[in-house]
Specification:
There is one protein chain. The chain is of the alpha+beta class. Strand 9 and strand 10 form a beta hairpin. The protein is globular, with a radius of gyration of 18 Å. It has a domain of 125 residues: Aminopeptidase, CATH 3.40.630. The strands form four sheets. Strands 1-4-6-5 form a four-stranded antiparallel β-sheet, covered by helices on one side.
Length: 256
Amino acid sequence: MTHPFSTRQIPFYLTASGPCPYLKGKQERKLFTRLDPSDGPGLNDALTHAGFRRSQGVLYRPACEMCDACHSARIPVRDFDWTRSFRRVLKRNDHLTREEKPAEATAEQYALLTRYLDSRHGDGDMAGMSYGEFVLMVEDGAQRTDIVEYRDDAGQLRAAALVDRLRDGPSLLYSFFEPDDTGRSPGTFMVLDAVRWSAAGGFSNVYLGYWVPGSRKMDYKSRFRPLEVLTSVGWQSLETMFDDTGLEPGADEGED
């Protein structure tokens, strides 16, 4: 298949080393390239399948010199294990209505994000995000991108997810929710909902970004089984990786 970017070289760049946001005491570097609007969604699609992640108009992947803990992760939806716990999460959120909207930032979304960040990530890199920065996060580099909104019976926005649509399923870029709703597990619910509508639409996978064993922020993804991670020999199930490396899945119940 010919991609619209196949006739030009793609320039890649390497960042300087800096503190890793996931593993204490580690240093990170990233390999990245910029999205050219003329590429359309093809470059985003191809590089996401090769382990990259989109953030605004940039596609990046870890290129750390002394660590390879970060693995791109995806859920093969046809084989997903709908545990009793996951079904309870769906039931706790069955009052929410789902609507896909174009990647256009609104003041209502920004207010919800601000409450979420203040409550759960007050000391994180995104704390204090301005409205202009939020607009860039949502709209800059959008490639077949939607904001999926979840509203309650009164029409109030309770959760939202920024989602890229790839050829074989959605890539969940960022989600946020009303902090008072934590008991309903809204972060988990948005992943489960993506699995549900992807299966109904005939898609193969849901992409979750990076799984980082040992990181409380990211290790929760190992609860979604089966989970596949990208390795040097291709996509492998997490269970296969444990058999090969002796790793054990995290038990963290936190939500990103």
